[in-house]
Amino acid sequence: MNRSTVYHPFVILLMIFLPLSCLHAQDTLTLSRNMLRDGDVLTRTWCADLAGLSSVGRDVCWDLQGVVSSGSSRVRLSRPGESFLYRTTERDTRHYYEQRGDSLLLTGFENNGSAIVFDRPVTVLRFPMVYGDSLSGVYGGSGRCYERQKLYADGAYYSKVDATGMLVLPDGDTLRHVLRLHLAQMERDIIHDINDGGMVSGSDTTYTEKHTFLWYALGYRYPVLRRVYTRQHTHHPVSGVSLAYISPDAQRLLPYDAPNAAKREQLSQEDLLSGAEGPGGVLSYRFSQHGDGDYLTIDYDQLEGGTVEFVLCDTHGIVYRSLSRTESAGEGYSINISYADLTRGQYVLYIRMNSEQYSEKFNVR
């Protein structure tokens, strides 16, 4: 069947004007740390959509505190034989990927209602990628839609690391060195109805815009957060949104992931040497651990007067220290908190002011 390719004007503008950006940051998505792996099984928690996740640029703080979960599902990754083909299975839907050189390609999907194979796939990632990097292209393929329909799809896409910063997790812990990848697909779908004689009896064409946002944290193989929304045409309202979360704690349990374990240890040591900065709001702070003196230092600034609470506890919630300081708005405040009598293990320091809460995990060796 001969088909001419016609793109929406918005798609043509994207293909012409999307530039490739220069390297701007050291935080990097790499092949060894972020490629899919055969045999990995993850639990994804589905959540109600949350405001405040659309910010782009540098030094963004995304906050997941208060997110409401609505169920969970298992994601299984598998690779047939020794090939570089991967498939992810979740909720009766399979997505197919291929590693081609330094790139991860989306090559198709299938579910109970439809299936498609892209002979011109979507390049999701081209390693290495840093903040500002982008790529774009066209894609297309064919498949089925239910038993009596044939499906053809084509369109344009771009993939860009459009933001970097920190992610405050639902439990108040904070991940730094977070990169957000934005994959946009502008697609035309042509569906042909097939009669009993195998002939086309009718056709329908739709235009869909799909945006997928993936939050990658350095030291973790898979995106910690994924948000997807779709709509018909560019200026139409959003018709569907999904938000899903994969716990960093679960990713730490993935077997034989030495590259990410080494990266987490490196970032932990860097935080010990230079101190870690907490997000702004009414309170901004710098957290440092002094292993030689067995104490923590929190240097902080208050944008408004009030009481700042410091609570030190273990990962089971047992409180060992609880202090508070009431100050007027100002800069240059500091407090030291000793942990000299604590046994070896992991602990959490919670910092609260008004409705804001932050947390810092640290190890006693």
Account of the protein in words:
With 365 residues, the chain is mainly beta. Helices cover 10% and strands 58% of the residues. It contains four helices and 23 strands. The strands form four sheets. It has a twelve-stranded antiparallel barrel with strand order 2-4-5-6-7-8-10-11-12-13-14-15. Strands 16-17-18-21 form a four-stranded antiparallel β-sheet.
What's the tally of helices?
Answer: 4
How large is the radius of gyration? Answer: 24 Å
Q: Which whole number gives the mean pLDDT?
A: 85
Low-confidence stretches: 1-25
- The helix/strand series, from N terminus to C terminus, equals HEHEEEEEEEEEEEEEEHHEEEEEEEE
User: What is the CA-CA span between the terminal residues?
Assistant: 68 Å
User: How many strands, which pairing sense, and closed or not: the largest β-sheet?
Assistant: 12 strands, antiparallel, barrel
The total count of strands amounts to 23
- Residue share in β-strands: over 45%
Coarse structural class: mainly beta
Shape, principal axes of CA atoms: elongated
Widest beta sheet: strand line-up: 2-4-5-6-7-8-10-11-12-13-14-15
How much helicity do the residues have? Answer: under 10%
